[in-house]
Amino acid sequence: MARPKTMPDSEVLAAALKVMHEKGPEALTFASLATACGLSGSTLVQRFKNKEELARAALLFAWDDLDARTEAAIATAPKTPQGAVDILVAISGDYGGIEAYAEGLLMLREDFRDSRLRARGFAWGEVLSAAITACFAATPGAPDNIGMLMASQWQGCLLWWGFNPKGPIDAHVRRNLEAFVAAVLPGQ
Question: Residue ranges of the DNA-binding region (predicted)?
Answer without folding.
Answer: 29-48
